[in-house]
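Q: Structure tokens for this one, please.
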Amino acid sequence: MDHNPSTAHPAAVIVMAEDSFAEVFSREALARLRNTVEIAGPLPITDFAAPAAREALRETRVMLTGWGAPRIDAHVLDLAPRLEAVVHTAGTVKTFLDAEAFRRGIRVSTAAAANATPVAEFTLAAIVFGLKRASRFAHQLRTTRRHRIVDGIPPIGTNGVTIGILGASRVGREVIALLSRLDARILVCDPYLTASEAARLGVEVVSLPELCRRSDVLTLHAPSTPDTRRIIGARELGLLHDGALIVNTARGALIDTDALSAELVSGRLDAYLDVTDPEPLPADSPLYALPNVVITPHIAGALGNEIRRLGDSAVREVEQYVGRGILAHELRADELAYTA
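A: Here is the predicted structure, written as tokens:
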């Protein structure tokens, strides 16, 4: 791209569902975007087959995408011969962007870092509430109407606990930063985390069995891939000590649901689950009614006013790319295998 600021703004399109467009971009963000690029075609584009969309694609150099974007495959890329960059206003691009985009040298950026912030905040809250045994005490008060009874409750509080993190992903690293506020030891299991990175993060790298054996809290932040599917099964759950807490704000498929259900029904473990497998769980799942389990309907990621953060991040990315050729949150092709 010509980064001379005196040249005309490059053509850009916005591709996502209409409701996503309304949620992601504030009036101010759109004004900034229009000061950087020339937005072409329908706003937003929801169907590449529409004549106006096909016309806009011919000159498009930057494509902003979001939730509900139609599939971008080789055929669509052929319609956009000048396309240089795809800037996604959400996390994963795997659901709609064909790897052909990378093979053609098109640069790709995501707002995964911006979406990591609310997930990490939610995770911290789940860890604090989980270790305070809030769900157990709330159930106790609801059913007995009596002041707290600590008999039979697992160890309470965050002081001096060991927190095990599966996956030093963007979210995992933000969680590590937030956990610095607690008096806690942090263990990490991630085959891609180098010793130097671990030292910089102030964490200890361990194997998965050791992570499970030593952790008071096991919090999951790995992507869902064939290698990680049900990575936490009966064996791993069995290594957790009585009263350990499991937090999952990543993907439900990381855990063997049947094995987890057995442990939770027994009362041996506690869990805060924002994601499940399947999602949602069947209506007759015993987990809904357990005092040691909190299930939320996939709310850890950006919702409500948090969604604007994604649009703002994408606009900053476009500004930097058009102005200086920089993508601060670029996704490389070789990262697809181990990212969400």
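A few notes: The chain has a mean pLDDT of 95. The first strand starts at residue 11 and ends at 15.
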